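Issue: ligand-bound run for guanosine-5'-triphosphate - logging full I/O for the record.

Environment: standard queue, default settings, no custom constraints.

Inputs:
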Amino acid sequence: MGAACASGLTVFSPNLKDHPVKVLIVGKPSTGKTFLLYSWKYGVDAILSVEPTSHFNVDTITTQSGRKILVYDLAGNIGLRMRPFLEGTNGVVYMLGLYGRDDFLQEDEMIFLQQLLQERDLENAPFLFVIRKEGNENEAHQDLLDRLQQCLKQRVWDLVEIRSRNQEDANLVLTVLEDLLNNTTNAES
Ligand SMILES: Nc1nc2c(ncn2[C@@H]2O[C@H](COP(=O)(O)OP(=O)(O)OP(=O)(O)O)[C@@H](O)[C@H]2O)c(=O)[nH]1
Ligand SMILES: [Mg+2]
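Outputs:
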């Protein structure tokens, strides 16, 4: 966005809040993408069960500050059918799922992540990684951060750890996501 637009942004910024930003939730199957979306939309206590997503779910979430986020929760096995969703994406939530799952950030997932990071439509999108932890895995955690750092280089990104079925933590994901989106929008303007 050029300098001319930047000055206009201050004047029009209240309206920007009404315009939803677009966020994708991606990640391997069964990592908890839909569970996270439902946690925001309905609250964790209202979630009785979650079925695997066959293609995608979409919903608008309103954050505590009033920002609207159009969230696309894509099926973990979406593969190439993901491409039509990329255009206009302002941010990506990458669900890593439960720490320590058998195939956690193995080679195929790293390749998938790197491909995603190379997508032109996502070049300015911040990435928020979400991991679910049930124990104290601090040692391996540093290894995870190092690997992500290598992959993400100059990208705006963050990592949030959540506890299972925890509303506070699900809300925290939304807060951090909103911060990342705000920072990126400001940096671009
Ligand atoms: N207890 C608990 N279970 C969770 C949590 N998140 C996900 N699950 C469970 O993990 C399973 C998979 O969750 P989903 O949200 O369907 O996973 P997904 O990533 O959307 O999977 P796909 O749609 O197949 O890509 C479900 O049985 C959920 O109930 C969580 O925070 N706590
Ligand atoms: Mg799902």
